Amino acid sequence: MLEALKRRLDSSYAVGGIIVLGLTLRLLHLWVLHPNWLTGDSFFYVQEAISWLEKGELEFYWPPALIAWLVPFVGLLGESTGAVVASLTIWGLFIWAWQLAGTRYLPAWKVNLGHLIWAVFPAFVHQSVIPLSQLPIACCLLFLLYLSKRNTQFDWLMMGLLLGLMGLIRPASWALIPLWLGKGIYQKIPASNLILGLVGLMVLPLLWEGYAWKQTGRWLRINDANSYNLYLGNHPEADHYRNWWLGSHESRELKQFESFTSERDSIRALAIPEQESTYRQLAWGYIAQDPGTFMLRGINRARVFWAYDILTAGSMKANERSAWWLYLLIDAAMYVILLIGAILFMLRGQRGSRLLFLSLLLYMLPYLLAFAHPSYHFPLLPLMAIGMLKLESRAWPKNKAIFWIILALVLFIQLEWSIDLLARFR
Q1: Structure confidence at residue 421 (pLDDT)
Q2: Going by C-beta distance under 8 Å and a sequence separation of 6 or more, which residues neighbour residue 26?
Q3: Which residue from 210, 253, 37 is spatially nearest to 126, judged by alpha carbons?
Q4: How much of the chain is helix, strand and coil, in % rounded to 5?
Q5: Peptide bond before 236: cis, by omega within 30 degrees of 0?
Q6: pLDDT class for 20, splitting at 50, 70, 90?
Q7: Could you tell me the pTM of the whole model?
Q8: Residue 153, number of CB atoms within 10 A of its CB
């Protein structure tokens, strides 16, 4: 059976057939969600793009790169169609990035197996048709992986540009910069390469900061949401486990959180620069007042970060689609398989295992400060998949006891997340 699968995936027609399958599933998903498919952050990204087109203005609350990407599509095709086409174009870039990175590390049939995984994985289907920042970051990480193999001056310049772009998509992704520089120093890359990389890293952020200064007369930390997020996740009334909850619900659902809503509303009456500094000061003050709670929330954030994603199933349920539970089961099963495969790869100590471990760790760290959500691990899935697909047939680690302990922890994280979901979905 495995040999037959290899032969089919080795076919020159395999990628084309998989792309057709993936596009079909994405169009069906859109049809199922219609007309309420553009919700949450994706709705606000599109509205910011429209505001930029119509008024030439931004609120500077959101990171700018995805909004800038949406602008030409929304301008030419309108709000809904433009958002879909822009998202599908990013999916096309992801296919290209996976092909480039995959062919450097995997045989052809495993590269195509990866294409098949991303074609049917519900989380990837969903994020390929709505504008969210996780899929663009996944693209950038794959391009980085591809460029890091050769280490020429051009590669380092491009890697710097990519990392600069990542910060304008999701600023937390800059946590990977120390790993990027450390890897170069460890490999004794010429100083000229490192300098070119650093120059590339600064180009896009400095252009953005210059534009923001011209518009607002102040320097930004890329965008204004970061201080607010730190405040949300560390407010005394924030949930210890579902730490993002205060920020993802409407004011009418927060009536029982009187201290939070009263304080937040009073801060919103201030000028925007004062809002940003006030949120940051209050957040660090709450952390200093109760470091024990901060540590507990940090542990909980790590557990939530590695739980299976519910974004796709949640969108289905919000639209009263009865198949939401099927999406949830498929998402959870595919994610857990990828996670276990990546753990096996890292414990086996194969080439690249330390780099994967450090990438997963560093990418997670910023979310331990404010709040985490299962969808935040999404950009790491392709890296984990490459690790899993690099496994040899006999993939058991030398120390099986450590593997069983980590496996038990992974399954516990999924179980407690499932129990929490069941309590909310009753």
Answers
A1: 86
A2: 88, 91, 125, 128, 129
A3: 37
A4: 75, 0, 25
A5: no
A6: very high
A7: 0.94
A8: 15
Give yes or no for a contact between 224 and 276, defined as CB atoms under 8 angstroms apart: yes
DSSP annotation of 238 reads S
Write the CA distances from 271 to 10, 92, 171, integer angstroms: 60, 41, 23
Q: What is the pLDDT of residues 172-230, one digit of tens each?
A: 999 999 999 999 999 999 999 999 999 999 999 999 999 999 988 888 889 988 999 99
Q: How many helices (H) and strands (E) does the chain have?
A: 20, 0
Question: Distance between CA atoms of 164 and 280, rounded to whole angstroms?
Answer: 24
- 390 alpha-carbon distance from chain centroid: 23
- The conformation of residue 13, written as its DSSP 8-state character, comes to T
Output the DSSP codes for 276-300: HHHHHHHHHHHHHH-HHHHHHHHHH
DSSP state of 242: S
**What confidence tens digit (pLDDT) does each residue in 88-111 have?**
999 999 999 999 999 999 999 999
Q: Are 377 and 307 in contact (CB under 8 A)?
A: no
401: which 2 tokens? Answer: 């006891």
What are the contacts of 14-17 at 24+ separation with CB within 8 A?
A: 14/112, 14/115, 15/99, 15/112, 15/115
Residue 347 half-sphere exposure toward CB, CA atoms < 13 A: 20
> Of how many residues is the chain composed?
426
The alpha carbon of 164 is separated from its chain's Cα centroid by a whole number of angstroms, namely 16
Residue 34 burial by Cβ neighbours in a 10 Å radius (0-12, 13-18, 19+): exposed
- CB atoms < 10 A from the CB of 370, how many? 24
275 vs 116, 250, 255, 264, 367, CA distance in Å? 46, 20, 22, 9, 21
Angle between helix 14-33 and helix 2-10 axes, rounded to 10 deg: 90
**What is the token pair recorded at 230?**
């730190």
The predicted structure's pLDDT at residue 99? 96
pLDDT digits (tens, 9 = 90+) for 39-64: 888 999 999 999 999 888 788 899 99
**Which own/partner pairs from 17-21 qualify as long-range (CB within 8 Å, at least 24 positions apart)?**
18/112, 18/115, 18/116, 18/119, 19/95, 19/115, 19/119, 21/116, 21/119, 21/120
- Phi first, then psi: give them for residue 313, nearest 5 degrees: -65, -35
In whole angstroms, give the CA distance from residue 205 to residue 201: 8
| Residue linked to tokens 């994610």 | 335
Residue 255, pLDDT score: 67
